[in-house]
Specification:
By secondary structure, this protein is mainly α. It has helices at about 10-20, 30-35, 45-55, 65-100, 110-120, 125-155, 160-165; strands at about 1-5, 25. Strands 1-2 form a two-stranded parallel ribbon. The chain starts with a strand and ends in a 19-residue tail after the last helix. About 10% of the residues are buried.
């Protein structure tokens, strides 16, 4: 049996494997490149072509991620999402304050204090910008929690130990987790 990669792909292959069903997972981009050559594109024809790909071995199978590897990736993607959310919220606040002539310097170190100082001078904006500032604070708290999770996972990973090691001495560099704090 052959399947294309996708959101459910790795999980489905693992679960079918537990039931004793042998499934090859192939890269969806490779399969798409082959399938776009079809003249009559239907689900049935796609299934036939996938079966033919499996029979001939035309596309190389993709390594199925372990559940632990997928969990690591999920934590990192969730963290990345929160970093983007924090940045977007800060940019929204900057834009809203900019419309009233208040320009905040770059950087996030004193962001909340600077926004509070602006709100002191223009209290009418408090009801508008205040909730965004609270949302930013909540996102940062969640980011701190996820950073702890990432550090914990990195501290238990031999691959991270190698990446964090200094080439000349073999000893760890920095905090050993090789993490950049970007919030």
């Amino acid at each position: 049996m052959v399947m294309e990669t996708g959101t459910w792909g790795h999980w489905l292959v693992r679960e079918l494997g537990r039931l004793g069903v042998c499934v090859d997972l192939i890269d969806a981009r490779q399969a798409h490149a082959v399938m776009k050559l079809q003249h009559n594109k239907t689900d049935a024809n796609d299934a036939d072509l996938l079966a033919e790909i499996a029979r001939t071995g035309f596309c190389r199978p993709v390594a199925v991620k372990s559940e632990a590897a997928q969990m690591d990736r999920t934590v990192l993607k969730a963290r990345q999402h929160l970093v983007r959310q924090r940045r977007d919220t800060e940019n929204a606040i900057r834009g809203l304050l900019g419309a009233f002539g208040h320009r905040l310097p770059k950087g996030t170190g004193k962001f909340a204090a600077r926004v509070q100082a602006v709100l002191q001078t223009c209290p009418a904006l408090t009801g508008i910008v205040g909730p965004l500032l609270e949302a930013r604070t909540a996102v940062i708290r969640c980011l701190d929690d996820l950073d702890g999770e990432v550090r914990e996972r990195a501290s238990q990973s031999p691959a991270c130990w190698l990446l964090a090691a200094d080439d000349s001495t073999g000893r760890g560099a920095g905090d050993g987790a090789g993490l950049r704090r970007d919030h």
